[in-house]
Amino acid sequence: MKSVGQLLKDAREAKFYTLEEIEKHTKIRKELLTALEKDDFSKLPPLTFIQGFIKNYGKFLGLDTEKLLAVLRRDYETHKHPPVVLETFANPMHQTKFRITPARILGAVISLVIITFFAYLWFEYRQFVSAPPLTVTSPQDQQTVDIPQVLVEGKTDPEVKIKVNDQDISVDQEGKFSEEIKLSSSSNKVIIAATSKFGKTVLIERAVFVKK
After folding, report:
1. Where are its TM segments located (predicted)?
2. Residue 46, in any domain of the structure
3. Which of 49, 86, 111, 151 makes the best surface tag, with the fewest CB within 10 Å?
4. Cβ contact 58:65 at 8 Å
């Protein structure tokens, strides 16, 4: 959107008037006319006088003076309250290089300790509220074997206790377990129970049949 100064200048140039001719007809000094066309309100008198200049100038050019005054008020308020740029941003400080100091090292170590502590608490909480993991790879459910025994093997966490039909089974450092279990009949239930140190238990039941 054009400013009031641009509207006046465009109209003057369209009619091939010079500033000297405008000065002669409106009795407004040339330097004031120049300031008007440049919207340089700092070189103009108070708003009341500027409005008078606009009326005379616009009337001489055959323009709508009410429209010009409305544009003037908009432009004048914009110049009166320009966007504020803080000196801090206008003249930013030179960036300083990051320096490693004993205080920063200590702060980093303390932060790491705190993060590790809370991570441990979260892990322990999850272990407390969750059942232990348990994977049984053998036997398969509904499996049939030729002899009255079956291999029970799988994986869990190292600190979890494993029982197969109430019989304790050892777990290695990786959480793996493997044990041959005797079967007492042609149709057997093999129940694998994993119990965490917090007392949470998960069961997997497999049906195993022995050929007759």
Report:
1. 103-123
2. yes
3. 86
4. yes
Phi, psi of 106 (to 5 degrees): -60, -45
Structure token digits, residue 85: 């740029």
Domain span holding position 183? 135-210
Rounded CA-CA distance 138/178 in Å is 9
pLDDT in tens, 90-138: 555 555 566 888 888 988 899 999 999 888 888 777 666 678 899 999 9
Q: What is the predicted pLDDT for the residue at 131? A: 82
201: left (phi > 0), else alpha (psi -120 to 50), else beta? beta
Q: Which of 122-136, 140-154, 159-173 has the lowest mean pLDDT?
A: 122-136
**Cα(188)–Cα(181) distance, integer angstroms:** 11
- What 170-177 contacts at long range (C-beta under 8 Å, 24+ apart), as own/partner pairs, is 177/152, 177/153
Give start and end residues of each alpha helix (H) in the chain.
4-14, 19-26, 30-37, 47-61, 65-80, 87-90, 102-129
The total number of structural domains in the chain stands at 2
Paired residues of 136 in beta bridges: 154
